Amino acid sequence: MQKLGNILINVMQELSRTSTNGEAHIEVNSTVCSPEEFETLFGYFTRGTILERIDLDVEKIDPVVTCGCGFTEKADEGHDGYTKCPECGRFAEIRDPTYNIVKPNPETNGERQSIRFS
Ligand SMILES: [Zn+2]
């Protein structure tokens, strides 16, 4: 599990590389911090940078069970990474990323052209 500070830095680096059109939408795992905390810290850390004016939308990530048989369901918090699939009985993986940048998508938005983040 990554520390909150590292996640903030990663998010800032990714957002500074990608052209955002002034908006970003990210998801943060509730085991790291609440969306409100993340927004507050992001505002604090980006003060005086090109990311300062980004309209950041933060939501929490729900862990999801995904099985090879096609079964998908929201997982319980406090899982240990695997669970038994209720459909087929095999072990199913739980996808529970620390954070996820929903928007901007680097593949569709492209690289930031104007100002580089140092
Ligand atoms: Zn299954």
Describe this structure in words.
The protein is an alpha+beta fold. It has helices at residues 4-17, 35-45, 106-109, and strands at residues 23-29, 55-61, 64-66, 72-74, 82-84, 91-95, 99-103. The protein has a single domain, classed as 2-Layer Sandwich (hypothetical protein PF0899 fold). The relative contact order is 0.26. The strands form two sheets. Strands 4-3-6-5 form a four-stranded antiparallel beta sheet, with no helix packed on it. A three-stranded mixed beta sheet has the order 2-1-7, covered by helices on one side. The structure holds zinc ion.
**Secondary structure tally, helices:** 3
What are the distinct ligands in this entry?
zinc ion
Mean pLDDT: 88
Shape designation:
elongated
Major β-sheet strand ordering: 4-3-6-5
Any idea of the CATH topology? Answer: hypothetical protein PF0899 fold
Order of helices and strands: HEHEEEEEEH
Report helical residue fraction: 10-25%
Notable characteristics:
118 residues, alpha+beta, hypothetical protein PF0899 fold, four-stranded antiparallel beta sheet, 3 helices, binds zinc ion
Layout: helices, strands, pairs:
Layout: H1 4-17, E1 23-29, H2 35-45, E2 55-61, E3 64-66, E4 72-74, E5 82-84, E6 91-95, E7 99-103, H3 106-109
Parallel strand pairs: 1-2
Antiparallel strand pairs: 1-7, 3-4, 3-6, 5-6
Residues 67, 69, 71, 85, 87-88, 90, 92 line the site of zinc ion (ZN).
Short account of what is shown:
With 118 residues, the protein is α+β, with helices and mostly antiparallel strands. It has helices at residues 4-17, 35-45, 106-109; strands at residues 23-29, 55-61, 64-66, 72-74, 82-84, 91-95, 99-103. Helices cover 25% and strands 28% of the residues.
